[in-house]
Amino acid sequence: MKRHILTTALAGTLVLAPAVSLAEETFAIAIHGGAGTITRESMTPEREAQYKAKLKEAVDAGYAILEQGGASMDAVIAAVKILEDSPLFNAGRGAVYTWEGQHELDASIMNGATLEAGAVASVTTVKSPIALAREVMENSPHVMLSGAGAEMFAKQQGLDLVDNSYFNTKSRYEALQRMKEQVGNPQDKTAWQQLPEEYKHGTVGAVAVDKHGNLAAATSTGGMTGKRWGRVGDSPIIGAGTWADNSSCAISATGHGEYFIRFHVAADICARVKYLHQDIVTAGDTVIHDVLAPVGGTGGVIIVDPQGQVHMPFNTEGMYRAKRQAGQTAEVAIYKN
Amino acid sequence: MKRHILTTALAGTLVLAPAVSLAEETFAIAIHGGAGTITRESMTPEREAQYKAKLKEAVDAGYAILEQGGASMDAVIAAVKILEDSPLFNAGRGAVYTWEGQHELDASIMNGATLEAGAVASVTTVKSPIALAREVMENSPHVMLSGAGAEMFAKQQGLDLVDNSYFNTKSRYEALQRMKEQVGNPQDKTAWQQLPEEYKHGTVGAVAVDKHGNLAAATSTGGMTGKRWGRVGDSPIIGAGTWADNSSCAISATGHGEYFIRFHVAADICARVKYLHQDIVTAGDTVIHDVLAPVGGTGGVIIVDPQGQVHMPFNTEGMYRAKRQAGQTAEVAIYKN
Question: Which residue in chain A has the smallest CA separation from B295?
């Protein structure tokens, strides 16, 4: 963030060399693995250790790229791929089941320097949806592809394809059965809305700022347990689940996607930073706690700004999350306190 | 807009009865039928008359509902359905062809009073995509449905289904052939970007404010001529092609959808109204002319605010458009000047 540092330097004592040196040390990454009813009581020590180890592995992988002067885009992709490949999280390998017992995955990515973006919705055979989102951004004339067409594009680009059963896991299958029992009649809109959080949530994401001051955001998910009719959540919606703009901030969201679309959460937080000149703590807390929570919009976001600040607000019991800022060690957390 | 009028009344002389009476007369509707290279030279008098007649029919249908005290949601749906049913516009009946020679339709709707929204992407057999978007909003637990799943939902809700060939028209088929010749290699991203505007554009939409001060926005499209791989444009993306919020404005967009997603055009214009306190003329012109035009983002938007003001900026040669405000006759226009 040379521009910021120079501005600071000009405002105070004009010592250019240390400022540039300091600027090169400004970078940060934050990741999430979903928000929801995650309490100490519901967790075993073994399971908690598994989650923490995988979160640390992912945030450290992204950090290593940033530390070597790599691009924030590469850092967020590296972190998200590790989370996608783990069955612990609802994305890639550990994706939840649709009502019909299949898996339909969504993902999106955005480059804060260029506002270029890529997104895929309802893909069923792509091993890494976030890798496909990046291909869409870089190698197609479009921003968003969906369904079988998106898979045809993935095949042409030489991405890894898998059978849909690759995404099968016992725990997600059992969650689908419990969810179906609770809903009863699938046409009952109220029954869906009253479902416990555990069925509505689960997404992975990463945001980063690199040494060049460029922001990036990436989000990937299996969606909502028992989703029907080709449902698309907020994760592949640019402005809802993902947003990155060097002039404000980068965001990846996780939560009850329908609310995150209706309140275009990611872009709104950045709009508050850009237009109201709020810092990311104020803007993020306002949207998550004052706008979403009162209407029942459960979930959270991770935010990074061009100065390398990180904020990770959520209005649920917990959110799998980690951050690592320049020169510091990784901080991994799950619960509210 | 009782709240606004009461505020005005309180600020000036407190005369409550006339204020409420005046409030009941505040309503307006605006519609568009797409933006692009539409010049007087490229139009015959007969064709111009056809477009103008259909635009007038649509805006008058919405106006009649508002005049009788109906909801803005009903008004925008009525107007959009008339445009969908006409082969003149790239939505419903007159939808363009995909690369594979089929039709994939997108639509979305938003209620400014509740921020409820509904969207459908890549549907192939639903006669009125905007009617389906409303069903999603009102009768599903989701905001956005796509593909075959969305059609299953449409069938369950008893909507009119048609064979995909219902959307066949000679002129759109010829446009696909011309487009394919120009692109040559479909993998060539640059060739796509350099395509003339006529292939990238075409959408219909409506925005309205009713006597109760409630805003609504609706957008429907066949997408981009020759689109591939299940491409989704801005029309079904809440915040990109459609946005409505009683606290700022209602917007429907038309243009090169990829840019409208990346710059989340509809929500950004309303964010400028809400956070920077710009009027809709300033906010709309800034985004269309100063943000989008310099990067090649061609298109336009229609905007209505809670006070019944209407603005319809575009950065192309023309935009099919019409508006009708309380007590006035319809104004229909096509060209820039």
Answer: A114
